[in-house]
């Protein structure tokens, strides 16, 4: 099946561009601002949007994103509301892929089939579940496939070659490579350390490869764009948005943060 994620990466490959994939916690800093922030990120150069579903007990998120989730939850943001946000975003943007990123528990409570149906109707393109390994994905994959939703799978530095093959066989859209052992927002990324894992992944997988964790700004994003098909940046963006006092300020902060990253990534390919 060819969904928005496929189309976007195919278009970028034709232009020799790497995808810029910002992560935004749905509902933070304010639930009423999220959709406009999403549009501002697209206008500033985002190619794919990862929209975080707030969750109370994260396993991979660092303190910045965890605090954003706690703020969103305190304001009543649920999985149902996140889907409504995507649906509202689709009223003006039918092209930009949206990937929901989060944890399995809210989907378990929603119901696999019910969630897949609602997500497809809202305009979601992919699902990235941090705590859903290939063994568990077998219980959810059928429903996702039925409604054309792509499972975006994670690969880490500790993933063995054999397991990479298993993950690659289930993944759709793109592979998310976690750049180091740790949590989001840490500052330890060295782009030279990506050469070997990128080569290993390309040997067993023909999907685009996106790299996340530890990417802070234009310089690190450009370095990653030289070796990967996509660059995911989250905690640094969330930090910028945390101090916004109004919707207009939040949108401006999002745009001002992302635009120079897009420029640096594009210049790295010249």
Describe the protein's architecture and organization:
By secondary structure, this protein is α/β, with parallel strands linked by helices. It has one domain (4-268): Aldolase class I (TIM Barrel, Alpha-Beta Barrel), CATH 3.20.20. It has twelve helices and nine strands. It has helices at 4-14, 34-43, 63-74, 79-90, 104-110, 112-122, 134-146, 161-170, 195-204, 218-225, 235-242, 247-268, and strands at 19-25, 49-52, 98-102, 126-129, 150-151, 153-155, 175-178, 209-212, 230-233. Strands 5-4-3-2-1-9-8-7-6 form a nine-stranded parallel sheet. Helix 9 (195-204) links the parallel strand 7 and strand 8. Helix 6 (112-122) packs across helix 7. The longest helix has 22 residues, at 247-268. It starts with a helix and ends with a helix.
Largest sheet: 9 strands, parallel
Oligomer state of the chains in this structure? single chain
Mean pLDDT: 92
Radius of gyration: 17 Å
> Largest beta sheet: what is the strand line-up?
5-4-3-2-1-9-8-7-6
Q: Kindly provide the name of the CATH class.
A: Alpha Beta
* CATH level-3 fold name: TIM Barrel
What series of H and E elements makes up the topology? HEHEHHEHHEHEEHEHEHEHH
- Helical content stands at 40-55%
Q: Pairing-aware structural class of the strands and helices?
A: alpha/beta
The parts where pLDDT drops under 50 for at least 5 residues are 182-186
Q: Beta-strand level of the residues, as a percent range?
A: 5-15%
Number of domains: 1
């Amino acid at each position: 099946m060819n969904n928005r994620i496929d189309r976007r990466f195919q278009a970028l490959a034709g232009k020799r561009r790497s995808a810029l994939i910002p992560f935004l916690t749905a509902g933070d800093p304010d639930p009423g601002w999220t959709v406009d922030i999403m549009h501002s990120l697209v206008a500033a150069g985002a190619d794919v949007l990862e929209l975080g579903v707030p969750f109370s007990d994260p396993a991979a998120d660092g303190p910045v994103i965890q605090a954003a989730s706690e703020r969103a939850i305190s304001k009543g943001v649920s999985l149902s509301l996140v889907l409504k946000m995507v649906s509202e975003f689709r009223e003006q943007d039918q092209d930009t892929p949206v990937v929901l990123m989060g944890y399995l528990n809210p989907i378990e409570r929603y119901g696999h089939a019910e969630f897949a149906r609602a997500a497809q109707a809202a305009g979601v393109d992919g699902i990235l579940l941090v705590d859903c390994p290939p063994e568990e994905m077998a219980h959810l994959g059928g429903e996702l496939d039925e409604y054309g939703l792509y499972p975006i799978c994670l690969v880490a530095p500790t993933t063995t070659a054999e397991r990479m093959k298993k993950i690659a066989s289930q993944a759709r859209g793109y592979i998310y490579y976690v750049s180091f052992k740790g949590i989001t927002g840490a500052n330890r990324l060295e782009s030279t350390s990506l050469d070997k894992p990128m080569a290993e992944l390309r040997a067993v997988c023909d999907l685009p490869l996106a790299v996340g964790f530890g990417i802070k700004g234009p310089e690190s994003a450009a370095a990653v764009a030289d070796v990967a098909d996509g660059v995911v940046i989250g905690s640094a963006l969330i930090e910028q948005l945390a101090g916004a006092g109004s919707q207009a300020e939040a949108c401006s902060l999002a745009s001002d943060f992302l635009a120079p990253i897009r420029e640096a990534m594009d210049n790295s390919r010249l």
